[in-house]
Amino acid sequence: MTLPTRKLGELTVSAQGLGCMGMSGGYGPGGDHDDSIATVHHALDLGVTLLDTADVYGDGANERLVGEAIAGRRDEVVLATKFGIAGFDPVEGFLVNGAPDYVRQSCDASLARLGVDHIDLYYLHRMPRDRQIEETVGAMAELVAAGKVRHLGLSEAAAATIRRAHAVHPITAVQSEWSLWTREIEPEVLPTCRELAIGVVPFSPLGRGFLTGRAGAEFGQGDLRASLPRFSGDNLTANLAIVEALRALADERGVTAGQLALAWVQHQGDDVVPIPGTKRRTYLAENVAAVHIELSAEDIKAIEAAAPPEAIAGDRYTPALRNAVNR
After folding, report:
1. Percent of all residues in the chain with a pLDDT value above 70, rounded to a whole number
2. Checking CA distances to 268, which of 42, 179, 182, 205 falls within 20 to 30 Å?
3. What distance in Å separates the CA atoms of residue 324 and residue 322, rounded to the nearest whole number?
4. Contacts 24+ apart (CB under 8 A), 109-113
5. pLDDT, mean over the chain
6. Count of CB atoms within 10 A of residue 152's CB?
7. Annotated catalytic sites, by residue?
8. Tens digits of residue pLDDT in 88-107
9. Which tens digit of pLDDT belongs to each residue from 29-77?
10. What is the mean pLDDT of residues 227-245?
11. Predicted pLDDT of residue 199
12. Reduced to 3 states, what is the DSSP secondary structure of residue 119?
């Protein structure tokens, strides 16, 4: 099976990718190993080519899992991974290392865990505070020259930082959170990417699962959502009303609330490739089906009226996590 393709800069990928983080934790326990492998295989069978991981997911376990899953099918995959998060401080948030030596060491370690000879899209996961972006991207560019990396990306970067990085080496994609309830990139980051012909890769396009209607107030041990302001107290109550409004619209169209929310992201432009994450094949198939949902201008207007940005209650991050965003 094939999916429509889109361009991230000069890189051709499926119109929807697969975020693999949750297979190794983040939202509670990771998935069953064999089930996670089967989910990746099913994604490839459905025509998904873009697989997204990072060295920090499961402290390297996610890269090893993805590497195992794509063994023998490497030519079907556009493989994206990230580096830069070297630790976490409860007050300062993510500790980001952008030193050239660390860039090189991180890439070699990711290549080993993934079991591949090159990474198709290599992201700086967050922007460092202690050095100029030009130095870090310069070291990343050396990886391209060495054949270890094909394309470069940034994650959660500010518009001015994107411009500076792109002046050093072409940036192929910017990965940021973008969904009906997280629209921060629209005023500055999105126009900058479009001006520079940089693709946009929305992570958490389903609001960390909330917009599916399946994520409520009960979270297991290790689920980061339990600490996020939008998922607790009065914020949760207000946000659940938005999901119900989306569900009503979805019911009218014979789709799920999650599919409608994901279709909205898919309709934001041909340079937009969302990477919804899942560790289950049933949810994977539901997400992929959203690629084929057609929305009219009236549909888009109704969806945005059901989930207006000003109605979303609570920040998407804690203050510590917010420190590394839009930097």
Report:
1. 97
2. 42
3. 5
4. 109/55, 109/60, 110/55, 110/63, 110/81, 110/83, 111/148, 113/55, 113/60, 113/63, 113/64, 113/67
5. 94
6. 24
7. 57
8. 988 889 999 999 999 999 99
9. 777 899 999 999 999 999 999 999 999 999 999 999 999 999 999 999 9
10. 91
11. 98
12. strand
- What is the Cα gyration radius of the chain? 19
Tell me the backbone φ, ψ of residue 268, rounded to 5 degrees: -80, -5
Q: What is the DSSP letter of 196?
A: T
Q: 315: burial class by Cβ within 10 Å (0-12, 13-18, 19+)?
A: middle
Q: Which two tokens stand for residue 133?
A: 């972006």
What kind and span of H or E run contains 124? strand 119-124
Which among 101, 63, 61 is positioned nearest to 82, based on CA atoms?
63
H helices present in the chain, as ranges: 33-46, 61-70, 100-114, 133-145, 159-168, 189-195, 233-253, 257-266, 281-289, 297-306, 319-322
**Structural contact between residues 176 and 156, judged by C-beta atoms closer than 8 angstroms:** yes
Q: What pLDDT, on the 0 to 100 scale, is given for residue 216?
A: 59
Q: To 5 degrees, how large is the angle CA 310–CA 312–CA 315?
A: 110
Q: State whether the Cα torsion 290-296-301-305 is positive or negative.
A: negative
Residue 282: exposure state from Cβ atoms within 10 A (0-12, 13-18, ≥19): exposed
